[in-house]
Write a structure and sequence with these properties.
The chain has 441 residues and is mostly helical. It is 61% helix and 0% strand. The protein has 20 helices and no strands. α9 packs parallel to α20 and α16 packs across α18. The longest helix is centred in the middle third of the chain and has 27 residues. The protein is globular and about 65 Å long.
């Protein structure tokens, strides 16, 4: 596998489009980029001033903060570091303290499980861990600066939905071909031909014993190329020259994070159905109180604000940086922490998946939750009973039932985001990127 695989297919190249209703580049002049030297308001103080957390939230926050202190800053400074906010002990990762807390929780879990497991047996010195954290901080702050120049609205509501639509279309075509009388085809092979991706080749075939192993190896190599290319762009030259540290950080991101998410259970059908069910329940909890009011409000928010990708400004009297925090980012990183790293630890390497019967029940519950979003009057107008609607939704949910096909979509979304945030990776491979920095590989 060579670095040339990093060059995206033509479908990932920027497309001409109409003038957007919102350009995220405008945030550059509105939200100052926070440097490590700038002071930040304590996330604990800002949260407590806005609302009193519930006991469950408070316990979770305390456990998360304790984990970060124990792993990433165990040695007390002057007096005791317990009295200092986390943001005063560690370098900033983003311009949001809330997002930083979730990110540092993920970093602490990864460091505890993958680095301390062997490094702690050699020495108690924290220098190496501090270097790893500093490199990650370089990457996250660099990514945040580049994200401000990306058209988030077009990416979220135009380009990613187009990839989802292509996935659904390829799934249905591949299964229609498999059901054609007199033709014996592998639906995965048809899907891969319609929606190819280098990380997922060759198509795993039980009749060829080495195909699954080769595909898994190619997938791991592809993740490494993605991460190495990103580090070649984001890291300072002195850190990039440190081969040992760069390789360790790349392994942690490529295998522990990406490998356990895209390459793990996140793409399994039952996992997707479970997340959809929880999302629907959360949406219903938000919608129900709003439908009981007597007044009808005209929603003048932009698409970004409606979907939680940009905070509502209104009469907000909080500081500008606080007021523009992305609720979506906080929810996203909290999702990663709670789903990929439950109980503040890495999940078992190979958890037992649900049985076939259990998966069918999970899909059924997901279909019931989705059908409940539509009033009964709509069902009756269409001449369908609620049970008919549930069965129809169950059939539609099958498009998320194949993990191998779901991986295609996941990697395509990852490629798209990377090319938009790091356009250099759409033009050069890892070798060229490293040589441009004066480092040979």
């Amino acid at each position: 596998m060579t670095h040339a695989l990093l060059k995206p297919p033509t479908t990932l190249q920027p497309r001409p489009k109409a003038n957007p209703t919102f350009s995220s580049a405008s945030l550059d002049t509105q939200t100052p980029f926070r440097t490590p030297q700038q002071s930040r308001p304590s996330s604990e103080n800002s949260q407590s001033s806005s609302r009193k957390p519930s006991p469950v939230e408070n316990t979770s926050a305390r456990a998360t903060t304790a984990l970060i202190r124990r792993v990433l800053c165990p040695q007390p400074t002057t007096g005791s570091n317990e009295a200092q906010p986390i943001e005063d002990l560690l370098p900033p990762l983003t311009s949001s303290n809330d997002v930083d807390l979730q990110l540092y929780a993920i970093i602490a879990i990864v460091v505890k499980e993958t680095i301390y497991s062997w490094y702690g047996k050699i020495t108690s010195d924290q220098t190496f861990v501090e270097e790893v954290v500093r490199i990650i901080a370089h990457c996250t702050t660099g990514l945040e600066g580049r994200l401000r120049k990306v058209d988030i609205e077009s990416l979220t509501f135009d380009e990613i939905p187009e990839l989802v639509e292509n996935h659904i279309s390829a799934y249905r075509i591949s299964h229609d071909a498999a059901r054609t009388p007199g033709i014996i085809v592998n639906p995965r092979a048809v899907y891969h031909a319609l929606n190819p991706h280098p990380a997922l080749s060759p198509v795993p075939d039980p009749s060829f014993g080495t195909s699954a192993t080769q595909q898994s190896r190619n997938e791991a190599d592809y993740r490494q190329l993605l991460v190495q290319g990103a580090l070649a762009i984001l890291l300072p030259t002195e850190d990039l020259e440190n081969t040992c540290l760069r390789t360790l950080v790349a392994d942690v991101i490529a295998e522990t994070i990406l490998g356990r998410s895209i390459g793990g259970r996140v793409c399994e059908g039952w996992f997707v159905w479970t997340r959809i069910t929880k999302l629907v329940i959360a949406v219903q909890a938000q919608l129900n109180p709003r439908t009981t009011g007597e007044e009808i409000e005209v929603d003048t928010r932009s698409r970004l604000e409606k979907f939680g990708l940009l905070s509502e400004r209104g009469d907000d009297t909080r500081p500008a940086t606080d007021g523009r925090r992305s609720a979506f980012s906080e929810v996203f990183w909290r999702f990663l922490q709670t789903n990929l790293f439950p109980h503040n630890a890495l999940p078992p390497p190979s958890p037992d998946p649900p049985t076939a019967e259990q998966q069918m029940e999970i899909r059924r519950r997901c279909a019931e939750a989705l059908s409940a979003l539509f009033p009964d009057i709509l069902h009756r107008a269409a001449g369908l009973s609620r049970e008919d609607v549930v069965k129809e939704v169950e059939s539609d949910l099958d498009v998320w039932g194949d993990a191998y096909m779901n991986k295609h979509l996941s990697y395509q979304i990852l490629d798209l985001v990377i090319v938009r945030v790091l356009p250099e990776m759409g033009e050069k491979g890892v070798k060229e990127l490293m040589e441009a920095r004066g480092i040979g590989i």
